[in-house]
Target: Proline--tRNA ligase
Amino acid sequence: MKQLDKITPRDVDFSQWYTDTVINAKLASYGPVKGTIIFRPYGYAIWELIQKYLDGKFKEIGVENVYFPLLIPQSLFQKEKDHIEGFSPEIATVTRVGDTELPEPLFIRPTSEVLMANYFKNEVKSYRDLPLIYNQWTNVMRWEKTTRPFLRTSEFLWQEGHTVHSDRKEASDLTLKILDIYTEFANNLLLLPVISGKKTEREKFAGADSTYTIESLMHDGQALQCGTSHYFADNFSKPYEIKFQNKEGKLEHAYSTSWGVSTRLIGAIIMTHSDDNGLVLPSSISPVQIRIIQIKETEEVLKVSNDIKNLLSNKYRVDTDKTDKSFGFKISEAEIKGIPLRIEIGPRDLENDQVTISRRDTREKIQVNVREIEQAIDQMIKEYDANLYANALKNRENRTSKAKTIEEYKKVLESNQGFVLVPFCGEVECEEKVKKETSTNSRCIPFEQDNKIENCFNCNKETKLKVYFARAY
Model:
């Protein structure tokens, strides 16, 4: 079967395979500035489907969408010390307009906590004004040294939720509720079997009290952070003076959260599900779920194609390849773009009242009676998605190990790169040493802990904590 362009096999060069898949599937092109990409229609359509689902889920719990400015005054950004230290190496700065030097440098937002905090300070007066539960779908800029389409780019798209509350528990509960939304979305729609948990002190978001995460494992055994939810307590409300009058008439600092997922989810989907023939997409976020390909454009083939499209379009995103390219090229293009199912219709099949349906994941072909096509498609889509999830879960389980000592940990990484569950003290200095020695870091502290006292795998201190470590993108 003809490929549009050569795709490097995954097992030969995973990095090059990834780039080849992105380019050949027409998801993105490189922008004129290093580290930027152009979202092509097919790639942006995937993001739109992610947006549509999550936006609906957010609105079900009372989230309101807003939009805040791109530029942040330097003096405003520097009010929260930990926050500025966490982002300063990546901040792009505007210092001139035309020939005029600006009186104060302006930062291009790497995230919007400070803008939101400054707004909340003026908006919040009483407990009656709270909670404020906002989200924006926007772009941010973080000047990355090493970039890769979708996974790590200098400018990327994301959603960032920001909330402020009069009650500490309410804020903490919302942080975990958002994490649940992300977890369900990743597992059930993106078909990514994620591990959810809490970040270590070293890995938590700059300025947060607690950071929670969903972590997925790619085909090559490297981890990818797929979404985070942060509980700030009053860490931002104190420096930005977000105060409200509580029910007792006293002034109190508010409690805030932030949370987000980005277009790196598209990278996660590619590296988890795709293969040497190109993209493989979960049906829920595939811009085209079913493509009809006509083997020969006879009058009967055209009529049956149109009837099938009309029938299935009530449930699915269906298109018909009407290009004048060869049949083989059409098949290759549908495969490279990861379209879950193809319906191939030709005169010979129709003589027996049949069409051929092909699955992208297994490349299996079956003949189906035209009158039974809707039921067959329903079943095949379910089986297709179940298979994608099962394969991803199997890869994660096969690549998940345990280690008790740093020596054992290093051996596991060499023999079976993936998640490694270790007893860990949780101290920043200890994790710094592990990273320096192994180029790995903690991914998350899983919610389920056995509370058994063991010795830290690196420094040997007693601990009850079990933590997943891995190499990561």
Summary: The longest helix spans residues 373-398. The chain has a mean pLDDT of 95.
